[in-house]
Design a protein that fits this description.
Layout (H helix, E strand, L loop, with lengths): L1 E7 L3 H12 L4 E4 L12 E4 L2 E4 L10 H10 L4 E5 L2 E5 L2 E5 L3 H8 L1 H16 L8 H9 L1 H7 L1 H8 L8 H7 L5 H9 L18 E5 L3 H14 L3 E3 L3 E8 L4 E7 L5 E11 L3 H6 L1 E2 L4 H9 L2 E12 L8 E4 L8 E4 H4 L9 E10 L10 H15 L7 E14 L5 H15 L3 E3 L1 H4 L6 H17 L20 H12 L17
Parallel strand pairs: 1-2, 1-12, 2-9, 6-15, 10-13, 12-19
Antiparallel strand pairs: 3-4, 5-8, 6-7, 10-11, 11-12, 14-17, 14-18, 15-16, 16-17
Length: about 500
C-alpha cells in the first residue's frame, strides 16, 4: 500500500495533521495502535453509559488557529464550563487559584505569616539560575509554600525528588504565576480582556468542553478526515520505519488488528509515537550515541479508577489535587462538573481517581478489583464518600502518559532530534510523546499545523521546536508568530476554541 503521508498515532497531533492534509487533497494514512479509541490521552472512555476522561482536558488556547480548528470540527457541541479546582492538604480544602483570606484562615495566622516572610526572603535572595523544580518554585512562592503546596504532590506525581525534576517543567507549566500574581488575583477582580495572550492560563475562570468529553472532538475529526478520503487504520501497531535513501521514501511495518504484518510506503512520515520507541525502530539504525540517548528517556505512567456512586453532591470542582501523603491518589475528577452529559443518571455521581505510577510497579500491576477497593477506601478517607456509596467501577491504564523532565532529558532529546533531522529527511516529530515535550493539546495541534505547512510547501518553513507552551511560534518574535498563525489559518476557515496547570493534565 502507498500513501503520500503516513501518520503514526491518532491523537490530537496526528488527527490535526491528517485532517488538514486531507483537506488539501493529500493522500494520508493514520496508523493507530488502539483498536477502539482515537484521541490518544485525549480520548473519552465509556463504561455502562458513563463517560470519563484520561486526565481531564480544558479546551482553552491563546492560539486563534487552534480555537478555530476546534470550532470547525465541533461547531455546535462545545459547552462553556466554569473552572473550579481545589487542593486537599492537612485535612482541609483550599481553593485553587489561591484565595488569600481563605488560605490565611485555614493555614492559621502564624503559618501564613511565615509563608509570606519566606516569600519575601525568596524575592530578596533567590536561587540564581535555578535548574531544578524545587529551586524554581521556591523562587516564585518561597520555600515554605513550596513545602506546603508543591513538594509532596509533585513527588507523588513523578515518583522522584523535586531536586531531580528539571526546572523546565515548572517554567512551562506554571509560567506567569507566582505568589504575588496569585494574591493579586485573589484580592482584585480579574478584568476581562479580549487579548488571550495576556491571560495566565492557570488562572482562567472558564473553558470550553465538548458535551461528551474530549474524545467527541477527535472522533468527529477522524470521521471528517475519512469523509475526505483519509485512511485511519485502527489496531495497527507500527513495528519499524525504514528509510530508502536512494528513492527518499519510507516503508513502515505494522501489525494490524488481526496480528498480520503489513507494510505501507510513504513520502513523508509524521510521528507522534514516543521518541524512545521511534528511535529504536528506525532503519538504517541510529548511531550508538542516539540509541543511548533514546534509552535514557523516561516516562511516567498513569491509571484512572472510575467509580460510580450515589450522588450526594460532595463536591462540584472539575478536579481536586490531593496533597495528603497518607493516600496514594493524586487527583480526583468529578465528571459531571466537566459536562452533565458525561453522567447519564441524575442520581449517580462519576468520579475518577488518578494514580501516577511506573509500568509494572506494584500499583500498575494490581488487579482491577484491588485498585477499585483502594480507591473506595481513599475516597472515604478524604471525606468525599460514605460507606456503601460506591456501586461500581472500572480501571483504565495509560502507558507513557507523561514524558519525564529529569536533569538530562533536554540533552537526550537534542541528540535524537539532531540526528533525525540530519539523517532521516521527511520524518517529522509532533505532539507530546513525539517531541518528548510535556505539552497540552493546543501545543500538540500547533506543531501538527506547522508540520502540514512544511509538507505542503515541500520545505522547512517552520521549526516545530520553536512552538512554545502557549502554542505560539516564536522563532523571530511576534512577526514570525503572526505569519505562522496566518499561514495555518489558510487551511482552517476563520470562524470562531488544553490548558497548562500546576499538575499534569491529560
Amino acid at each position: 500500500m502507498k500513501t503520500n503521508v503516513a501518520i503514526i498515532g491518532a491523537g490530537p497531533a496526528g488527527l490535526t495533521a491528517a485532517y488538514l492534509l486531507s483537506k488539501n487533497n493529500v493522500d494520508v494514512t493514520v496508523l493507530e495502535a488502539d483498536p477502539v479509541y482515537v484521541g490518544g490521552i485525549s480520548r473519552t472512555a465509556t463504561y455502562k453509559g458513563f463517560h470519563f476522561d484520561i486526565g481531564g482536558h480544558r479546551f482553552f488556547s491563546k492560539s486563534k488557529a487552534v480555537e478555530d480548528f476546534w470550532s470547525e470540527i465541533l461547531p455546535d457541541d462545545m459547552l462553556d464550563r466554569p473552572r473550579s479546582s481545589r487542593i486537599f492538604y492537612g485535612g482541609k480544602f483550599f481553593a485553587y487559584p489561591l484565595k488569600a483570606f481563605e488560605a490565611l484562615t485555614k493555614l492559621g495566622v502564624l503559618k501564613s505569616t511565615l509563608c509570606l516572610l519566606s516569600w519575601f526572603k525568596a524575592r530578596l535572595f533567590p536561587v540564581r539560575n535555578p535548574n531544578n523544580f524545587e529551586d524554581w518554585v521556591s523562587n516564585q512562592f518561597g520555600k515554605r509554600l513550596f513545602n506546603t503546596f508543591f513538594k509532596s504532590y509533585t513527588e507523588k506525581v513523578w515518583g522522584m525528588s523535586c531536586k531531580d525534576i528539571s526546572a523546565d517543567w515548572a517554567a512551562q507549566r506554571i509560567k506567569g504565576l507566582s505568589l504575588g500574581s496569585a494574591i493579586k488575583n485573589a484580592l482584585l477582580p480579574q478584568r476581562q480582556t479580549k487579548d488571550k495572550t495576556k491571560v495566565i492560563k492557570t488562572l482562567i475562570n472558564s473553558f470550553k468542553y465538548p458535551r461528551k468529553g474530549p474524545g467527541m472532538m477527535w472522533e468527529a475529526c477522524a470521521e471528517k478526515t475519512k469523509a475526505m478520503g483519509g485512511q485511519i487504520e485502527m489496531g495497527s501497531r507500527v513495528t519499524g520505519c525504514s528509510y530508502d535513501e536512494k528513492n527518499e521514501t519510507w516503508q513502515l511495518r505494522y501489525q494490524d488488528q488481526h496480528g498480520r504484518t503489513q507494510t505501507i510506503e510513504a513520502e513523508h512520515v509524521i510521528s507522534s509515537a514516543p521518541m524512545r520507541e521511534l528511535a529504536r525502530g528506525l532503519t538504517p539504525p541510529v548511531s550508538e550515541r542516539a540509541k543511548q540517548a533514546a534509552d535514557s528517556l523516561k516516562y511516567r505512567d498513569f491509571l484512572t479508577v472510575m467509580l460510580i456512586l450515589k450522588e450526594r453532591h460532595m463536591f462540584d470542582d472539575n478536579w481536586i489535587y490531593i496533597h495528603d501523603p497518607s493516600v496514594q491518589v493524586g487527583r480526583i475528577q468529578n465528571f459531571r462538573s466537566w459536562s452533565p452529559e458525561m453522567v447519564p443518571d441524575p442520581d449517580k455521581a462519576c468520579y475518577g481517581l488518578e494514580y501516577f505510577c511506573f509500568e509494572h510497579d506494584g500499583l500498575w500491576d494490581s488487579s482491577d478489583a484491588g485498585l477499585i477497593e483502594l480507591a473506595k477506601k481513599e475516597l472515604m478517607q478524604i471525606g468525599l464518600a460514605r460507606e456503601g456509596d460506591v456501586m461500581d467501577g472500572c480501571v483504565v491504564r495509560q502507558k507513557k502518559a507523561y514524558p519525564v523532565y529529569d536533569d538530562d532529558y533536554a540533552q537526550h532529546v537534542a541528540t535524537i532530534r539532531d540526528e533525525i533531522e540530519e539523517r532521516y529527511p521527511n520524518l517529522h516529530l509532533v505532539g507530546r510523546n513525539g517531541m518528548h515535550k510535556y505539552n497540552n493539546q493546543d501545543h500538540a495541534m500547533m506543531t501538527a499545523m506547522l508540520c502540514v505547512e512544511n509538507i505542503l510547501a515541500d520545505t522547512r518553513l517552520y521549526d516545530l521546536w520553536q512552538v512554545n507552551g502557549d502554542a505560539e511560534y516564536h522563532e523571530a518574535g511576534e512577526a514570525a508568530a503572526e505569519e505562522a498563525h496566518g499561514t495555518a489559518l489558510r487551511h482552517v476557515p476563520a470562524r470562531v476554541t488544553a490548558t497548562p496547570e500546576l499538575a499534569p493534565e491529560g
